[in-house]
Amino acid sequence: MSLEAETRSDDFVQPFRIDPFALRGRLVRLGPTVDRILSQHDYPEPVAAILGEAIALAVVLAGALKYDGIFTLQTKSDGPVRLIVADVSTEGAVRGYAQYDAERLGEIGLRPGQSPSVPQVIGGGYIAFTVDQGEDTERYQGIVELVGATLAECAQHYFRQSEQIQAGIKLSAARAGADGAWRAGGLMLQRVPPEGGHHVIADDVEDGWRRAMVLMSSATPAELVDPELSPRRLLFRLFHEEQVRVFRTHALEARCRCSRERIARILRAFPTEDIEDMQKDEVTTVTCEFCNTRYDFAPEEFAPAASP
Hints:
The chain has 2 domains: 12-254, 3-Layer(bab) Sandwich (Hsp33 domain), CATH 3.55.30.10; 260-302, HSP33 redox switch-like (CBS domain Like), CATH 3.90.1280.10.
């Protein structure tokens, strides 16, 4: 595998493959994208960390699918962080947000820098994955109970229960680098049916899968977010003896889909009484939960058109 300098060091998905055992993988590295998303809200560190992992998980899972639209990951639960939403479009637009109870979060007593676990921070509930390809197509959704100490383990449980696919996942989100900005990373390996040309006996395939999983598990959380360690060099460090091949990267960026026109269109569908209830000082204010952008609307913007 070539270790030539990459044109992008952050905010992309790096697909790769391990031959000859038909193992497909993706490495996600998020820098300014995840920092912007997390910095738009004044999240406590445990909430920002678990949301950062969820965003990395959404991106790494979306890379495994062939779709044209929006892939959404959502957790809904009874813990201090009661809701997490992260989505990514086929064009690479990423966004996410979390809802949490600050008082309950403080009762957990997490130490600074301590990695939050799913049972502690999210609690019991479910994780859902949705693919939306537009109005004229059927939405695909998979839902499974939150089972595991980490979001990576919860996703692996989903694959075992719902998809009957063997997959390994590692996630990390933390402040890193000289500027202390938020960064996130994800690594995923999947077993896929061997393609033509790979004449490998079953025992060899099984041994190759187990070895690859051991090698992947050796990647540390710090390595997944290290701005000084390029993704290709990390893959080479992990799998250089396994004939790893890399493919063209897919760029990512933090970009919300909200707009004044879109929100106004939604509000105009509300009954007049509901609009009046939302007004404060004769102004209707809507704040996007994803990007925290505030939109103010005057009453006349919702007045019915005069009859001719």
